[in-house]
Each structure stands twice: as structure tokens, then as C-alpha cells.
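> run fold Copper amine oxidase-like N-terminal domain-containing protein
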Amino acid sequence: MVRATNRTGKLLIGTLALVIGWGTAASYASAADSGFIGRMTKQYTEFEAKHQQAYNRYYRTEKGLYDTYHRQMTAVYDKMLKQARDDLNAMTATFQSDIASLKRSYDENSDAFREYERATDKDRAGDPMNLYEDAMDPDNAGGPMDRFEDSLDPDSAGGATDEYADELDPDSAGSAMDEYADEVDPDSAGSVMDEFADESSVRSSGSVMDRYEDGELTLKEAEKLMAQALAKAEAGMDKRIEETKRAVQNRKNQSLKDIRDAWLNARNSILSQREAAIAAASSAREKLTGTGISFPPLVLDDWMTVVVNGDYMIFEQPPTVVDGTTLVPMRAIFEKLGASVVWRASDRTITAKKGKTAIWLQLGNANAKVGTVARKLEAAPRTVNGSTMVPLRFVSEALGAGVKWDDQLLTITITSSASAS
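> ok
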């Protein structure tokens, strides 16, 4: 509104000048360098296009990462729920078959027989099998799977995914992307783009270009002031971009941590309650028959979280374990650690550089080089779903980064030597 008023004011003043003294206004216009005015208009247009493109590029990248992670963790949730339900049904079928068989040899009215029936009944509230079912039930309010489900629901107010989605939403007032969007909007009063647009416009009353056109500034003065205005605008945009990236990463860190913790809680609750249910049923059966009962272990998929220099990472291809070796996405981690990565398709080689350190690898080749030193890898680099994967240990060997594995949190923490110091 302020900018519109200034520009409207300039138009009114210009009209009044025509009425009062056409000759004076004409002399101002002829004195001004139309070429310079054109260059400043072009400079602003290019500045606006550059930063709006940068905004769009950043938004697409971060939204893509959000969508990728949400898709991946939803798949983890769906698979774990199916595995647990299938296991519960299989255990229930085994118990029912066992009870039917035991009825031929044991008194089903005995206390021991009834105790075994109770221990294997998933519909008896509060008993071990029922608690096992509750642990995996997303409709059990406040239960572990309910909390895991809520953490993934973008419509669950205050949940991890809801907060993450809001930070990336340019229509969510006060979010990082909302403030960035405002900064690149020439119609957002007081924004960097708005202020630079004003200074660049001959129609904005009191602006550099308005004063130049009116003859209040010489060409040299106007050039100097516009150079300062451009530098100020670039600095303002740089500041906004850094603030946005940090705010988005901070939110990402908290949300991914919360989702990881909700998943681990659900996973561990399912496994521990299953163990308790089997132990209770086996104990009851042993009292009845002298022999307990056992089941094969339930193996739920692991999800490895990667944290690099304190920031939680999202990958198109998550880390994976092949023949006992943990493989991680090379490019994303190396670039996060400050290395440049170049892929050469002709010989399927990857060259990475960080400072004076050069690293050479080749797909399918377990021999690598760090500087001039040959290194033998635990496993040859390979492509998985379009991502080059390398042994986790090589990250430490190649870039001198600290690598830690947390077996409780299933989390890989990578810290560059600079961050560690």
C-alpha cells in the first residue's frame, strides 16, 4: 500500500507539473538518460526473476524432500502394521489349533486349562495377547501405533509432520516459506523486493530513479545510489535465504527426530509386548502340559536415521545393509560435508574433492583412492535406485569425519572434523 501510494503520488505530481509548467517538466525528462533508466529497469527485472526463481527452486527441493520422507515413513508404518497384524493372526491360529488338540487329552474345565485359554485370548481386556493387539492398534487412543500414526499425519494439529508441513507452506502465516515468499514479492510492503522495486522505479515518489528523472541527482550520483541499493537488496535476500534454510532445517531436525522416536516406540512396544504374550502363554501351557510353546521371532524392518553435523538427512535412497555392510548415499553426504562430487558416465567413476583432498571411486570396484593412497573398501560402490551407495566406513576414511552408530536409536551420526573441533 505504501509503495502504491508513492507511485500514485508521483503520477499526480507529474500531472500537476504538466498543468503548471510543461516546459520545466520537459527539461527534466530530456536531461535524464533514458538509457540509464532502461538499464536500471532491466537490473530490477533481472533481480526479481533471479530471486523468484531461487525461491521456487528451493521450495520445490524442500517440498520434494518432505514428500519423499513422508512417503518412506508411511510405507514403514504400513508395513510394520501389516507384519504385526499378520503375526497376531498367525499366533492366534496356532493357539486355537493347540487348544483344540489339547482338549482331547486334558480337562478343559481345569484351572490350568482355563488359564492357558485366557493367556492365549486376544479379546480378554488387559491380558497379554490383548495388550499385544493394543500395541499395534492405531485406533487405540494414546497407544504406540496411534502416536506413530499421528506423527505422520499432516492434519494432526501440532504433530511432527503437521509442523514440518506448516514450515514449508507459503500460505501458513509466519512460516519460514511464508516470510521468504513475502521477501521476493514486490507487492509485499516493506519487503526487500518491494524496496528495491521502489528505488528502481521513476514512478515511486522520492526514489533514487524518481529523483534522477526529476533532475535532483546527477547520473553519477544516481549510479552510485543504485549500486548501493542493489548491494543492499542482495544482502537482504542473502540474509533471508540463510534464515529460511536454518528455520526449515531446524524444523526438519525436530520433526524427523520426533517421527523416529515415535516409530521406535511403536516398534519396541510391539516386540516387547509380543515377547510378554508368548512368555505368559508358554508359562500357562507348561503348567498344563509340562511343555511350553514358542514362535519364530518377528523381524520388523529397521529404518536408519542419518544425522550429519547435527542436521537430519532425507535421501531418495535410504541407507541399506548388504551382506553385513552398511551402504549410504554418497553424493548427499559428501556434499553436506563440503565436498564436490562429479560423476563420469564413460568409465562409471566418481571423483570427489574437499580442499586439497581428492577421492576416486568406480562402480563395481572395491579399490578406491584418497589422494594418492589406495584404499580397499568393504564393498564396491553400487547404484541402488539411481543413487551411488558406498560403505559407511569409507565416509570416515575419505573425509576424516567421525562416524558413530547408535544401536538403540538406529541412528548414524556423521561429524566433520571442523564441526567436531
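The two ends are 50 Å apart (CA to CA).
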